[in-house]
Amino acid sequence: MSAPSRTRPGSDSASPLDPGDWWAIGLFATVYPLLAGTLLWILAFFALMGLLYHDSTFTSVFFMAVFAVVGAGYGLALRFLRNVRVGRPWEVPTVLSAAMILAVGVVVLQVFVDIDGFWPPPLLCLGLCVVGAVVWGATRHRLRFVAALAAVVAGALALAGLTWLTVEENKAREREEILDDLAGISYPVAVLDSLGWEPSHVQVFPETQEGTAITYTPADPSDELDGFSLRLRTERLRPKSQTGWTPLYEGCGLEGGRDECEEHGDVVLADLTPDAEEDEERIVQARTEFADGFTAHLTTDIPKDTQGEPAMELPDIDMVELAGSIRPARPGEAEEIVAAVKN
């Protein structure tokens, strides 16, 4: 009996595959995503480093490389399957390409949701490609393409869901840790009661340091204040006998320090960088005793550019007026802030 005949190239009718062809498809579905995923992993590292310094050059290169690698893989797989005269040769390359793109999508999701560590791209690419290839090979011909594509999409959605679940669990754990720390402190927490600013991050320091820090960002984002923030630190007031400085005048020139300080009623405004050049970062701090025995330090924080230099000049903000809006948190208010910024 003669062997089953192959179909001509480009035919959509089914044709059997030799064991060697199956092995070749399986080998391609494992080696290709590992090699391509490793290359994308390296490029992703440089892209992330660039984003840390507000440089999107490597990010653009990364996404261009994704399309180039996926396109090359599609072309190689399609050429092989046509050479062995497989019916509907575009199915496997399409499934593998979809798996690669969805794997990259999961990696990008993990980066932007700020998960603690992310799954290596080579493993993600390998997993989804193998799932697609196995389902394609194990399913009846008429349904194999739809089934394989559905399996790849389902796998990617499951990974995305697991990523989101991990993020929510991390947030819940961090929130509980901060709430436990807040419950254990015995000092008031300074908050900024200003409509133009909203909390974005909360830190509670150990009892040995006795302090909290809340980061505030503009409530209405604008180009002028993009990336700018204020850090409000609560500290216990210590007498001069312990620190060598008059309270609120730490480091001031009036007391032998280098900072330029001005008194504005209950607020001391300190320029922590009096010798800064025009292109260097300026840091201004407003200090006030917001509760009996406790001080609040409101400090400017300017974003940096790709070279680590200030990305903007110090905004024209009335730090004295803002310091006048500092008050002790009401009962339960600090906990509400933690819940808000950790959602």
Question: What does this entry look like structurally?
Answer:
This protein has 343 residues and is of the alpha+beta class. It has 2 domains: 19-173, no CATH class; 186-341, Protein Transport Mog1p, Chain A. The protein has 8 helices and 9 strands. The strands form 2 sheets. A 7-stranded antiparallel beta sheet has the order 2-3-4-8-7-6-5. A hairpin with a 6-residue loop joins strand 2 and strand 3. It is elongated.
Properties at a glance:
alpha+beta, disordered N terminus, seven-stranded antiparallel beta sheet, 343 residues, 16% strand, elongated, two-stranded antiparallel sheet, Protein Transport Mog1p, Chain A
Give a quick rundown of the structure.
The chain has 343 residues and is an alpha+beta fold. The protein has eight helices and nine strands. The strands form two sheets. A seven-stranded antiparallel beta sheet has the order 2-3-4-8-7-6-5.
Major sheet description: 7 strands, antiparallel
Q: CATH fold name of the largest domain, please?
A: Protein Transport Mog1p, Chain A
Distance between the termini: 69 Å
Structural class estimated from helices and strands: alpha+beta
Helix and strand pattern: HHHHHEEEEHEEEEHEH
Average pLDDT confidence is: 82
- Order of strands across the widest beta sheet? 2-3-4-8-7-6-5
User: What would the principal axes of the Cα set say about the shape?
Assistant: elongated
Strand content: 15-25%
Q: Provide the CATH top-level class of the largest domain.
A: Alpha Beta
When the domains are counted, the total is 2
How many strands in all? Answer: 9
CATH architecture of the largest domain: 3-Layer(aba) Sandwich
The quaternary structure here is single chain
